[in-house]
Give the backbone structure.
Amino acid sequence: MRYSTLAAMLLIVVPAFALDGDPRMHDPSTVILHDGKYYSYGTGAGLPISISDDGWTWRRAGTLMQALPGGRPGTDVIARGGNNTWAPDLIRIGEKYFLYYSAPGTQPKAAIGLLVGKTLDPNSADYKWEDGGPVVWSDGVEDSNAIDPGAFLDPNNGSLWLTYGSYFGYIRLVQLDPKTGKRLYPDRKPVNIAINSEASIMIFREGWYYLLVTHGSCCAGANSSYNIRMGRARKVTGPFLDNMGIDMLQGGGKLFLGSGGRYIGPGHFGLLDLGSGVQKFSCHYEADLDRGGASVLDIRPLLWRDGWPVAGDNFTAGTYHIESVRTGTALELAVEGVPVGGRRGGGGRGRGGGRGEGPIGEPIPDQDVTQVADKWPGGHLDVRMSPYMLQAQQKWTIAPVANAGGYPGSPYFKITIAGTERSLAATADRELAVLPAFSGGPEQLWRIDQLTDGTYRVMPKATPNVKERLALSAIGSSMPTLATFNPDSDRQRWLFKRP
Amino acid sequence: MSLLHTVPPALIVLAVACGSAFVSLARAQTEAPRKPASTLTRTTSPSKAPGPDGFIQGWLILEPIGVKAPLTDSGVQTVVKTDYFPEQLSALPRDGDKVTVAGTEITWHAVETVNYNVNLYHFAYALGKPTSNVLFWAVTVVNSPAEIAGVRLAIGSNAASVWWVNGKEVIGLYNDRQSVIDDGVSKRLTLQKGPNVIRAAIVNAGGATDFCARFLDEHGNPVRSISAGVEPASK
């Protein structure tokens, strides 16, 4: 990709990457991993399908409505709402997928329809969507605009819920039947849980229900003020209060994500839980300035801090020292280090130090790798860890690799000693080595996932002769290795710090 | 025979009379006999199970050899790769064995630590030997009831150290450092069924000096199915 060349040439930090391929998207459904592929559906004629083999490079794959008779919503859905197809959401319950989609007419007359399928793969013999009819609707007069569904499975009791609504009136909550995807109690009045927002969806963590909604205006490119906000409650029915205690029914909402970098107007949060403590979220930006202001899908790390979700950033290229959370020591090429400024004593010409009695000297420049690397052995070298001392063998340049694939939200990276071609690699004995140059092999491609606590998990794309996915691990204060990732341990948690 | 608990003054005087290279030995001529090392005892068993956390407690330690070198990678490697006595990387010493280094006869002592670590300062001080600018050689034999693959030797040392398992160098820790549990860890290795020789060279510049060692399994847990001591377990 164009970013890798730029980073390699200029060694600058580039902004967070948007997805690769064709990430055009508006109002994405929650991204779902199904049989090794990632799926999302968005607003548009027939609900456009976006598929990715790795979560990084996306492609369009027709529309979902192509699988339905007439290629349009069912007649009951159209009657309750209209024949537009917007803003779907998708959830897997057992062996079924329930896809809820917006079918607005002249808003706020609208309906949310249900489609039921067994597979998301359009090429599967089992690929089929059955019309489940309208689930909820708004009559055009009541304080509701029944679009923007968000499905939520309560992990505490297996109950299934649907939030919906858009600006006109309330965000509402109804309970669904996990067996059918339809309303469990159709005669019950929906529960109002928020106002002045849309694109609602709920998640749960450690005793709290979080309601994420989108505030602001959409659909105006770089002039869209879309931003994602949230509140939390102890019960699924609310009240959802923001960080200042303001009820979302009164307009409250703590900011989760606003415009930033080269992206304007994030909206339509969706949780992508990859397990093992790795969570991502999907959203769309109203305008990706690097893509001419197009509305695009993105996937980013989801962090948690002080009981609130925090939008993380995908890893950015740059030069870092890599510090083990377990030990506090830094990853380094196993060569003899030279103190910055040279050695003191013993005939060395090192500068500074002592016990504070000497004069203040001129600034000591950063260590130039070209002045120390000529003493480093060639060939394959070991990797170890030591206290970070600002030395050249401890600084790593991390850059995305073009056409090497990726993982949800990010391309693979190469990790080289700054100012050299020496490349970090996984070895067949499940250890690490630094090779003389980057070859592009999967053992030299690295996945860097930010974990929910803000630290990082680092994994090779593949380890030679090893099927298991391994992660960079601090087995001791001075020894890195590759091991199975354990989300409950600091062994595989790393920090990337600017030198 | 260990000198740790009963250091005959005559032996110390004898060592001095033999022209020891150890600078601080001169002190021994004027000092009263020192108390035994409080953390070390004579070996009680030729091979015993490791402590609760897997640390190997039984070792053969050679009295310190005076060295003067920076604790850099190259400095330490030069020190430990210098030939001091015959078969220093292959011989399996026994308690009381003696070797001659630079014209001075020094002795191997079988010891057991009461702690997780082996306090070399205590060891040398009790013998009236120097503790700074010295090299200690330590050897133990790990007996494994079966072949165990995928384990790691995990050590801490004050200061720099180099370690071998069955003759293969597996760990090098350099620079002045404190002894931290699992500071240096080998790559995965296989403990063969029966005896496995663990050998260490610890280089100290000054101040406290000690080491600790254990084996870890794939999950980082201590390997406790082994026994270790100063001679192979009887067959």
Observations:
- The interface with chain A takes residues 70, 72-74, 152, 154, 173-175, 180, 182-188, 216, 218, 220 of chain B (CB under 8 Å).
